[in-house]
Design a protein that fits this description.
- There is one protein chain.
- By secondary structure, the chain is α/β, with parallel strands linked by helices.
- The protein folds into two domains: 339 residues, TIM Barrel (Alpha-Beta Barrel), CATH 3.20.20.80; 67 residues, Sandwich (Immunoglobulin-like).
- Helix content is 26%, strand content 15%.
- The protein contains 16 helices and 18 strands.
- The strands form four sheets. The protein has an eight-stranded parallel beta sheet. A five-stranded antiparallel beta sheet has the order 12-13-14-18-16. A three-stranded antiparallel beta sheet has the order 4-6-5, with no helix packed on it.
- Bound molecules: alpha-D-glucopyranose (GLC).
- Alpha-D-glucopyranose binds next to loops.
């Protein structure tokens, strides 16, 4: 039988911004529980929740101070168990966000580690003497800008942090640390979670000798300082694969289809290694290509074809349009093309992940300077690298604060929430929400879409066309990636979904038109 994570669709919840239940302006677990019926109505199969563990929130939960607890802002372990039960009652799977590369500097492990050079936890983190010039041990740069090494006065060494200095990297070469972290997976699997999204999986192991990274000759400051060097020695080291394989064997030791999804930003050939070369690794190495791809049919056709061709035997594809770190699709391609993008995401071969709010066409929200929260923006301001604009509260209805909170929302709502919200779109047949529902429903109804084969069709200009099939069922998807009409002969058959509605025209796709057609045998 096909595992649920192949036929199903995943929905990412950014917990601070989904639904507040206690009026503090920050979303929480009881809030998510209260909104599960939206996800059921939408037609997704699994919910992945960004980190909810105790955290000083230097990086909004990606700085974990206790891997086996719940931050009081989000609720309690009992609230979590109730949410998990409520999700399962509705047939929804629940995935957590595992952050193994680094902890918070407030984690008791790090406090012990920094307390003295001979503390048993010293080696659980990455400590090095200064370089020959007395400065940092090498030229590695934090993904958030600046040296990736922080000086510790008390013990006279530097520690490594790929992100904030409040997020010291864990030393996965230490067997005790490795065992302790594997136990974290077991802790949550034992409670019944259906899987994990694994944060920055490709960062987890660094070169044992810490050589300098090579300079990037194409670096321009507006890219962000991390791009000044290629992360050749600080990421994607061969030893990470044994760790991923061990995580997989733990997942596989549990009943039901538990799933592991890896956050990995690497070129396709390297990404493919994370399916596992010698032993299975993650089920789904996140495929982020649609986020960076130029929105042109020929470019997308090549990218999709190359990705399909690169998949290892048995490797199941997946597609992502957006997440809590990257500009939203509606902002990248505009409102009309965001509908075309939804059709693409939900009809390509492979598991789609939907970012909360995209189902109502939410766009990036401009954040006034005095309300900026994201450390990425605060450290390298004005480059457009900040992530607050894509993390704003979910607009549910046109009541106070869009139904998100009775308090002051931690980030502002967008300007259009009175009309762009779940309640309003739910009753508007032409809304993007209804389009999402229709497409997700089609995936459940037509095996050709959920698990069928895939091939690109010949098309010209800005038309992307492909066929999906299973058994006798054949479905053609044709997408016009421009606002201008484009020549294309839509095959005879039943139009199952359209981004525009109305009747397709002969020999042409209207501007911004996408169609899903069940062709006649
Ligand atoms: C991942 C997360 C991002 C976080 C970073 C450090 O890329 O998606 O939000 O800031 O890891 O944990």
């Amino acid at each position: 039988m096909t595992p649920w994570w192949q036929s199903g669709a995943i929905y990412q919840v950014y917990p601070r911004s989904f639904q507040d239940s206690d009026g503090d302006g920050i979303g929480d677990l009881n809030g998510i529980a209260a909104r599960l019926d939206h996800l059921v109505a939408l037609g997704v199969d699994a919910v992945w929740i960004s980190p909810i563990f105790p955290s000083p929130m230097a990086d909004f939960g990606y700085d974990v101070a206790d891997y086996c607890g719940i931050d009081p802002r989000f609720g309690t372990l009992a609230d979590f168990d109730a949410l998990l039960a409520a999700a399962h009652e509705r047939g929804l799977k629940l995935l957590l966000d595992f952050v193994p590369n680094h902890s918070s500097s407030e984690h008791p492990w790090f406090r012990q580690s920094r307390s003295s050079r001979d503390n048993p936890k010293r080696d659980w983190y990455i400590w090095r003497d200064p370089g020959p010039d007395g400065g940092p041990p090498n030229n590695w740069i934090s993904d958030f800008g600046g040296s990736a090494w922080a000086w510790d006065e008390a013990t006279g060494q530097y520690y490594y942090h790929a992100f904030l200095k409040e997020q010291p990297d864990l030393n996965w070469r230490n067997p005790d640390l490795r065992r302790a972290m594997m136990d974290v997976l077991r802790f949550w699997f034992d409670r019944g979670v259906d899987g994990f999204r694994i944060d920055v999986l490709w960062h987890m192991v660094k070169h044992a000798d810490f050589p300098d990274n090579p300079a990037n000759p194409d670096y321009r400051p507006e890219m962000g300082e991390m791009h000044a060097v290629h992360q050749l020695h600080s990421t994607d080291q061969p030893e990470v694969h044994g760790i991923a394989a061990e995580m997989r064997s733990i997942a596989d030791s549990y009943p039901g289809d538990r799933v592991l999804i890896g956050e990995i930003y690497l070129p396709v050939e390297r990404l493919m290694h994370y399916y596992g070369l010698d032993a299975p690794e993650v089920h789904l190495p996140f495929n982020f290509q649609l986020i960076d791809a130029p929105w042109q049919a020929r470019r997308l056709a090549r990218l999709i074809g190359d990705y399909e061709a690169a998949l290892p035997p048995g490797g199941w594809p997946n597609w992502v349009l957006g997440n809590h770190d990257r500009p939203r699709i509606a902002t990248r391609v505009g409102e009309a093309q965001a509908r075309v993008a939804a059709m693409l995401l939900l009809t390509l071969r492979g598991t789609p992940t939907i970012y909360y709010g995209d189902e109502i066409g939410l766009a990036d929200v401009a954040i006034p300077a005095d309300r900026v929260q994201d450390p990425r923006e605060l450290r390298e301001p004005g480059l457009g690298l900040g992530r607050d604009p894509v993390r704003t509260p979910m607009p549910w209805n046109d009541s106070e604060n869009a139904g998100f909170t009775t308090g002051e929302p931690w980030l502002p709502l967008g300007p259009d929430w009175r009309t762009r919200n779940v309640a309003a779109q739910g009753v508007d047949d032409a809304s993007v929400l209804v389009l999402y529902k229709r497409l997700l429903h089609l995936r459940r109804k037509h095996a050709a879409l959920a698990t069928g084969d895939f091939r690109l069709l010949e098309a010209e200009g800005d038309v992307l066309a492909y066929e999906r099939w299973q058994g006798d069922e054949r479905i053609v998807v044709a997408l016009n990636l421009s606002a201008e009409p484009q020549p294309f002969v839509i095959p005879e058959g039943e139009v199952l979904a359209s981004t525009l509605g109305g009747e397709p025209q002969p020999g042409t796709l209207r501007g911004d038109e996408g169609v899903v057609v069940l062709t006649r045998p």
